[in-house]
Amino acid sequence: xxxxxxxxxxxxxxxxxxxxxxRQYLDEFLMDKHVIDLPWLIRxxxxxxFILPSRPAKSAEAYRAIWTEKGSPLIxxxxxxxxxxxxxxxxxxxxxxxxxxxxxxxALSRLAKQPDxxxxxxxxxxxxxxxxxxxxxxxQAKKLMQEMGITVPLRVHPVFYDHDGxxxxxxxxxxxxxxxxxxxxxxxxxxxPERHIIKDDPTGSHCLxxxxxxxxxxxxxxxxxxxxxxxxxxxxxxxxxxxxxxxSVGFQSRLxxxxxxxxxxxxVIKQVADQGARRILVICPSFVSDCLETLEEIGxxxxxxxxxxxxxxxxxxxxxxxxxxxxxxxxxxxxxxLTY
Length: 340
Ligand SMILES: C=CC1=C(C)c2cc3[nH]c(cc4nc(cc5[nH]c(cc1n2)c(C)c5CCC(=O)O)C(CCC(=O)O)=C4C)c(C)c3C=C
Ligand SMILES: [Fe+2]
Ligand SMILES: [Fe+2]
Fold this sequence. Notes:
The protein has 340 residues and is α/β, with parallel strands linked by helices. It has a domain at 172-316: Rossmann fold (3-Layer(aba) Sandwich). It is built from twelve helices and eight strands. The protein has helices at residues 19-30, 40-51, 55-66, 73-86, 104-112, 131-148, 164-178, 194-199, 225-240, 265-274, 292-308, 324-335, and strands at 4-10, 93-97, 119-124, 154-156, 184-190, 247-252, 279-283, 313-316. The chain has a four-stranded parallel β-sheet, sandwiched between helices. A four-stranded parallel β-sheet has the order 6-5-7-8, sandwiched between helices. The site of ligand L6N33NVT has 23 residues, from helix 3, helix 6 and helix 11. Pathway: Porphyrin-containing compound metabolism; protoheme biosynthesis; protoheme from protoporphyrin-IX: step 1/1. It is found in: Cytoplasm. Keywords: Cytoplasm, Heme biosynthesis, Iron, Lyase, Metal-binding, Porphyrin biosynthesis. Its EC number is 4.98.1.1.
């Protein structure tokens, strides 16, 4: 296909670190029914009474700890990646965020105006499927295109959690850290409520029925976030040659009282400290760009907890960001999209 336009979509950040901007961002983000999947009135009440009065101040402080002169690291890293990709291909590429700016509708409109455009390739910047990440991006793109009368065919790039090229790029980008002397490697994935995985299980009877469901073959794994992050972990340790007793998996960024995927990253970090690990590495493969959740939650918060628990050093392995191996892979995928 010659005339393809590409829309890369990441999550989004507040416009600034002011409490008001963070409140507006959290309101848009958490009112998404794919993120807090409760009936509208309950979601609205929960946000207005319990989340929005206090969380924005706490989150704004966290954002201040990692904000750069150019703005939010998530946006800056996504923009750098987009710029490098543009310099390597003639395919028109737009970057948008699911929440906030750059705006998805404006990006779609620019792509639709490309001369002789035949297809829009929607590329959610997430390796794993989750209703709160990939699904909401797809649904929003379809909704906006319908509202805007854009009739160009939409193609969605599949998730790539176990793709050889992705694992190779991840291992390659992590190499300088893996070559150091470390005691333990922690894979910290963004958590999701268990309910989200069960809701998206197409069989209605597979996901989270028992502890080993993710190791049994099932079509449910097409939308099973837990299965997909385990696959990334297994493929990574195999390629990087990390022995089984030298790595662990945890889930971070838990919010609210519902049951989320276990174990919690902070508990894993304390446990490995108790077991004698002194120098640990943390990699966060559910994010392709460093952001609040990697730089602040892990790079600052989890590091403090590890030191308190007796550890010496916690090093955060950077996300793929604009690593050459990642840019080359994205170029290949936007020119020859995966078809499975
Ligand atoms: C119900 C709450 C949340 C779900 C489910 C969730 C899933 C999810 N999120 C990401 C990626 C990112 N999340 C980020 C920040 C963030 N996430 C939540 C809540 C849920 N996420 C909140 C409230 C926040 C905001 C910050 C805070 O107040 O703690 C970010 C970083 C944004 C940034 O500006 O840097 C990313 C990226 C994925 C991939 C995912 C499901 C797998
Ligand atoms: Fe999140
Ligand atoms: Fe599973």
